[in-house]
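Moderator note: this is an archived Q&A kept for reference. The question asked for a predicted structure of one protein chain; the sequence and the answer are reproduced below.
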Amino acid sequence: MRVGNEVARGAPSSAGWLILLVTLSGVALALLASSVPASLAVAAVVGMIFLVVFVQRPDLGLLFVVFIRSCTDLSFAFVNRAAPASAAAGSTSVAVGSSPFNVGLVLTVIFVGGVFVLSRGIPFLSLPGGTAFALLLLSGLMGLLRAVGVAHSESLVYGMNQWLRPVSALVIYALAAHVFRTPKAIQGVIDVIAAAFVIPALFGFYQLLRRNLPINGTFVDQNAFAVFLVLIFSIFLCQALAQSGTRKLLALSIVGCSAVLLAATYARTSWVAAVVILMVVGALRKHVFLVLVPLAVVIAVGMVPSIANRLANPFEGSFADRVGIWQTTGPVWMSATQDEAGAVSTGINRLIGTGPGSIGGLVLSGHGIANMEHNDYLAVLYEYGMLGVVAYVLMYLTILVSEYRTWRRCTDERMASIALNAIAATLGLMTMSLTDNIFGLTQNQIYFWTLVGLTVAISRLSARAGGSKTASAESQNLALARTGRRPVREFLPT
C-alpha cells in the first residue's frame, strides 16, 4: 500500500551509516549462511531488508509490523520442530513469545524506532499517559535489577525479554502519534489492519470447519486470538458506522467474521469485552445497541450450545482456578519481598516489585502449577510493585480521558470513529485485564498502541483545524470591525 507523501519521512541517513550498515549486514549474512539452516538464512535476509526499510521510512516499517505480527506466531511451529526433544517443558527458552522471529521483530522496533524517536526529539513523555508509562517501565527495570543477585542468568534473560515487550509498545505509541499526520495516512493504517486480519481469519475458519475447537487462528492459543479479534471487532464496528459504500460493506464483513470467530474461541473474558465495546459504542454513538446487545446475547445463549455450555457455570472451571491463583500468589509475593534488613528495605522491595517475568515463579510457588496470574492489575503489582500498578492505572485513565476529549472535538466523522473505537477498545482491554494477562503481549499490544497513537495524531489534526478556523474568524472580525458591522461568532470545535 502506498503511503507516499501522506506520512512523515524517516530520519535522513548519511552515506557513512549506510556503508556501515551494509558491511555489518554482509558479515552477519555470511555467518548465518554458514551456520544455520537455509530457512533461517532466508528469514535473516528478509529481516535485514526490513531493517533497512525501517531506518529509511519508519512509517512503512511500522505498517509492516502491524501487518505481519498477526501471523508471526506461526514461527513457533519451526522453533518447536528445531528444538531438541530433551528440552524441558518448563524451560524459559521455549516460553511463549521467545520465538526468534518475534524477538527479532521486537528488538528491531525498539532499536530503530527508539533511535528515530530520540534523534527527532519526539516528546514521548508528553503523550497522554506517556509519563506514567515511562514510570511503569522504570519501576520494572529497578525490580529486574534488584533480582540480579538472587536469580539465575536464564531467569534474567527471560525477565529482560518480558520487560522489553512493553518498551516496544511505548515506542510504537510514539511512532504512530508522530509519523501519520494526515487523514489519508491514518485511514491507511486502518486498511493495513484489515489486511492483517485476513490470514488469521482464514486459519480460524479452516479450524472451525474441521471442528478443531476452540480455534486459535495463527496465534499461540485461543485467548491471544480472542484478544486480537476483540480489537478487530472494535475497529471495524466503528468503521462501519462512519464509512459508506464499499468501505462500509468491507467493515461489516470483518465485523461479522470476527464475531463468528470470537464465539469459536470459547474465551469468555473476550466475550465480555466485546459486549462492553458494544455498550460503549451504543452509549456514545448508536443508542439502538443498548437494546439490541442484551437481546442478541440472550438469543446467542439460547441458540448456540457451545456458548450456553461455557456460560452455564461461569464461576467454576477456569474461573475457579483463577480465584485459587489470586488467593495463593499474594502471600508468596509478600514473603518474597520481605527483607530481614528492616522495614525500609521491605518497603522498597514492595514499591518496585519482583521484576518482569517473575509472576510465573510466584504462581508456581503458591499454586503448585506453572501458570500466569490471569489478572493484569495483580500481575503488574507483583512484577512492577506498588509504584508500577499506580502508574499502570493512571496510564490507562489518562489515555481514556484524552481519547474521549479527542472524540468530542473531532469534526471529521471518519476520524471521530477511530477515536470512538479507541475509547471502546481501552475500556474493553481494561475489562479483560481483570481476568487475563494481555499487557505487554506484542501480538495484541502492537495493534492497541498503534490505535492509541492514531488518536493522538487525530487530536493534533483537530487542534490545527480548530486553530485555523478560529484564526479565520478573527480575521473576519477585524475586517467587519473596520466597516462597523457586527463581528462573526468565533468557531471552536465541540
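Archived answer notes: The radius of gyration is 24 Å.
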